């Protein structure tokens, strides 16, 4: 409901209960049309789902969509099949009770597809194990098998279910599917022997001929061409563009292996199917006495082989009627017409019993059996009822009578259970019940099923009475017993205007969905239907009503006349009136308060008292008028949709304001956080930097212990040893000074030193210079700086000033050389006082001299 409120202005309303004109059929159709044209094919009537066939693939059934609806409250998301399926599943698990989902609608409305989508939803979303996966696969693959044997192409639908199906899915206490059971109703056996123009027989016949391999067809005595078989050519459309019989055959064959059919079972099954085709090709002719005889014995031989029946017994059954009189049996020969009728009756009986056997075989594979399954824990079920809807054809036979009777009973069940649920809810909530005008179709159900007075009872009596029973005698009996019923009309009982549209052998019933005229109309079906109704009455219901938008299967086409007719016979307006029951909206106090509490300052953001008091404060603040609502024991009831819509509009506006406020608070919080993180980062960096400097200072000043001192020495030793290992053994690499010297000569930076070098060579002839560099000499007295050249040879060092040698120092007389540990470039040469050699005019003798080199790249070797 909440999802419907949010989306109401986009495309109509998602719940018909919220229509202002809920009693207007035009408003109902208009809302349905608007949503269908936007590909919104699902709409609620309370908890009932209305589905319109889109006749195209829509992106509504993906695994992500399944997960989206899984475990979500019913009205929180837009209407969907998955919402119905999930709601039934959750309620079943929480309350541990049984449920059923009733899917109804006319042929082509999408009932079978809806049933398959629900099965797929449970297969994907329910818990699973390896053993449970087998059950899940069998549940899913039972569909193609049943469709092959129970579905056919009709004028309205290329894959129309020609039988009613009720499937129980059994779940364990964990909610996992552990088994299943299928009940079938009213298989259309007449289709085996007759199809209208533009229709086909059941799919399995065409799949067998198209997909079966040559060896199989040869063993069955069949040819691939369907035109060879009488039962397949009456509709004149053996090939259908939208159906791929060959691929469907492969799917069915694979499904048989999963469902646990043995090869022998499959062999017998297709033998019976082939025998039906051979049976249809049997032709009769008259003998000399006017009795029917089989024209060609080849077909009957194939039937005898495939069915395992004696040839003589088959011939006798097709050409004679057996009459039992006390202890005697008398054979009465049949004429040609009756023989054809007997042939078709045998074909229908064979196919009908084969279909029943097939369903029972599938049930055996789905049964909750085996040591793994046999546990004492209780089980619950969800039932899926897929049954064709109300039918009104040009000629309505006994089958249409049974179908429409079934729909009358289901409509009665729907109204009774919905009305009962509404009355119980009002009673529990202490709200006065207001009588609702609706059509109660119990009177029609009684007309059909009443004991001794109903149509079925009268038909049984007529069939069992002695003498010949005819259509006219049956009609006379009906006129006698139920002729005064308001919903029963024959030509004899009708007024002059109505009489023209009813034949002498017809009768007309006024169903809840409209008038239907039947030609001469079975206790077996009544009993099975009664059993079905009892099963459904014991379970919690969910409903899906399927609607066909047009007769041509065109996407986007909305036929108002056709849909209005379906809305009527599906009883949707009746259901809406009952569901509305004077109040458009009802919700538990807790949920209502949780949604709308932001509209009242007293309840926002938290209400700590009882929810009922909070709701009362809330609606007084909003301004509800007394006639617009009622307060029950646990729920609030709102009468008018406009009241609810106004509340929802205020709620949306309030949400917008709250979102803006929340966004502003978030922005402020993020900005403050960013500033705080930036400041904290700076503080952390400063602390780490200071800590590193302090730790470094402390560690550098701390004396080494003996172990660390030994370790440092050992590390230095190993470093030097590794360095030695990497030095060349035969040649030395060029010194860095040499590289610098070469670069100086190449760049012309050495020219200023060339003149000085030439003067030095003249002063110190026949000497090989090892190194020459400009230095500054400091006097001992006064430390006056004097520029000199320091020249190193192989045996001596010379201090040279311009073109004059100031001092010569023999290497043999050196006491030592000291350097500063700072970056000032100071070098001290230690010589003995008595071994000093002066050359030329010196600046004063001394035993030690301080000579810091002048920083320069001008180095000579």
From TrEMBL:
Residues of the signal peptide: none
InterPro entries in UniProt: Kinesin_motor_dom_sf, Myosin_head_motor_dom-like, Myosin_TH1, MYSc_Myo1, P-loop_NTPase
Keyword set includes ATP-binding: yes
GO biological process terms on file: actin filament organization; actin filament-based movement; endocytosis
Keywords carried by this UniProt record: Actin-binding, ATP-binding, Motor protein, Myosin, Nucleotide-binding, Repeat
One GO cellular component, as annotated: plasma membrane
Renumbered residue ranges of the record's region Actin-binding: 529-551
Chain residue ranges for the region called Disordered: 835-861
Key word ATP-binding present: yes
Sequence positions that bind ATP: 105-112
Membrane-crossing residue ranges in chain numbering: none
GO molecular function, one term: microfilament motor activity
Protein family according to the UniProt entry: Belongs to the TRAFAC class myosin-kinesin ATPase superfamily. Myosin family.
Protein name: Uncharacterized protein
Organism: Geospiza parvula (Small tree-finch)
Top-level taxonomy: Eukaryota, Metazoa, Chordata, Craniata, Vertebrata
């Amino acid at each position: 409901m909440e999802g419907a409120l949010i989306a109401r202005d986009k495309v109509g309303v998602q719940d018909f209960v919220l229509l202002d004109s809920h009693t207007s059929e035009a408003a109902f159709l208009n809302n349905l049309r608007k949503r269908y044209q936007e590909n919104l094919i699902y709409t609620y009537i309370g908890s009932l789902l209305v589905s319109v066939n889109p006749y195209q693939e829509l992106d509504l059934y993906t695994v992500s969509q399944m997960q989206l609806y899984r475990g979500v409250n019913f009205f929180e998301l837009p209407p969907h099949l998955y919402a119905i399926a999930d709601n039934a599943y959750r309620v079943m698990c929480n309350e541990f009770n049984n449920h059923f989902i009733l899917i109804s609608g006319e042929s082509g409305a999408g009932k079978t597809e809806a049933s398959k989508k629900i099965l797929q939803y449970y297969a994907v979303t329910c818990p699973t194990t390896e053993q449970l996966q087998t059950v899940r696969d069998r549940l899913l693959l039972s569909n193609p098998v049943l469709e092959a044997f129970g579905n056919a192409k009709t004028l309205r639908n290329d894959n129309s279910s020609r039988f009613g199906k009720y499937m129980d899915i059994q779940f364990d206490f964990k909610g996992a599917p552990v088994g299943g059971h299928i009940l079938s109703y009213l298989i259309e056996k007449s289709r085996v022997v007759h199809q209208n123009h533009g229709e086909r027989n059941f799919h399995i016949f065409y799949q067998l001929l198209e997909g079966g391999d040559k060896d199989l067809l040869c063993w069955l005595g069949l040819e691939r061409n369907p035109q060879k078989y009488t039962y397949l050519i009456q509709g004149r459309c053996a090939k259908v563009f939208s159906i791929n019989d060959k691929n469907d055959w492969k799917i069915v064959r694979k499904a048989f292996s999963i469902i646990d059919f043995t090869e022998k079972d499959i062999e017998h099954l297709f033998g019976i199917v082939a025998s039906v085709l051979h049976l249809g090709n049997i032709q009769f002719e008259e003998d000399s006495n006017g009795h029917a005889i089989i024209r060609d014995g080849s077909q009957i031989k194939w039937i005898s082989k495939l069915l395992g029946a004696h040839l003589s017994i088959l011939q006798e059954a097709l050409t004679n009627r057996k009459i039992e009189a006390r202890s005697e049996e008398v054979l009465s020969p049949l004429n040609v017409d009756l023989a054809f009728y007997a042939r078709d009756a045998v074909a229908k009986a064979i196919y009908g019993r084969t279909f029943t056997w097939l369903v029972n075989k599938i049930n055996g594979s789905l049964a909750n059996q085996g040591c793994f399954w046999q546990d004492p824990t209780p089980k619950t079920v969800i039932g899926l009822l897929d049954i064709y809807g109300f039918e009104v054809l040009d000629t309505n036979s006994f089958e249409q009578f049974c179908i429409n009777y079934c729909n009358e009973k289901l409509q009665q069940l729907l109204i009774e259970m919905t009305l009962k649920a509404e009355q119980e809810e009002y009673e529990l909530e202490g709200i006065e019940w207001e009588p609702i005008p609706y059509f109660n179709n119990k009177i029609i159900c009684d007309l059909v099923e009443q004991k001794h007075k109903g149509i079925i009872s009268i038909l049984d009596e007529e069939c069992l009475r002695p003498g010949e029973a005819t259509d006219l005698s049956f009609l006379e009996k009906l006129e006698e017993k139920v002729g005064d019923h308001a919903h029963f009309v024959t030509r004899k009982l009708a007024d002059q205007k109505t009489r023209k549209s009813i034949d002498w052998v017809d009768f007309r019933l006024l169903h809840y969905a409209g008038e239907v005229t039947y030609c001469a109309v079975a206790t077996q079906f009544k009993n099975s239907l009664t059993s079905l109704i009892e099963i459904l009455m014991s379970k919690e219901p969910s409903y899906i009503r399927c609607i066909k938008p047009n007769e041509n299967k065109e996407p986007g086409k909305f036929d108002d006349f056709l849909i209005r007719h379906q809305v009527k016979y599906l009883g949707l307006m009746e259901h809406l009136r009952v569901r509305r029951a004077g109040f458009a909206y009802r919700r538990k106090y807790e949920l209502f308060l949780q949604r709308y509490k932001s509209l009242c300052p007293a309840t926002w953001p938290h209400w700590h008292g009882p929810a009922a008091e909070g709701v009362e404060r809330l609606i007084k603040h909003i301004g509800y008028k007394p006639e617009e609502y009622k307060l029950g024991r646990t729920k609030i009831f709102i009468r008018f949709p406009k009241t609810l819509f106004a509340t929802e509009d205020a709620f949306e506006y309030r949400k917008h304001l709250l979102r803006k406020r929340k966004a502003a608070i978030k922005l402020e919080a993020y900005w403050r956080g960013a500033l705080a993180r930036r400041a904290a980062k700076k503080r952390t960096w400063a602390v780490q930097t200071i800590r590193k400097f302090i730790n470094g200072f402390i560690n550098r000043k701390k004396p080494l212990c003996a172990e660390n001192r030994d370790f440092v020495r050992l590390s230095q030793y190993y470093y030097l040893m590794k360095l030695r290992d990497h030095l060349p053994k035969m040649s030395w690499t060029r010194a860095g000074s040499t590289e610098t010297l070469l670069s100086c000569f190449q760049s012309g930076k050495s020219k200023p030193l060339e003149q000085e070098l030439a003067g030095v060579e003249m002063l110190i002839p026949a000497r090989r210079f090892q190194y020459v560099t400009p230095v500054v000499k400091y006097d001992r007295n006064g430390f006056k700086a004097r520029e000199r050249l320091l020249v190193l040879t192989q045996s001596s060092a010379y201090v040279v000033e311009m073109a004059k040698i100031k001092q010569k120092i023999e290497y043999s007389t050196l006491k030592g050389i000291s350097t500063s540990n700072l970056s000032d470039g100071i070098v001290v040469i230690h010589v003995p006082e008595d071994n000093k050699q002066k050359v030329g005019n010196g600046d004063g003798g001394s035993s030690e001299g301080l000579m810091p080199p002048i920083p320069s790249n001008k180095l000579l070797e």
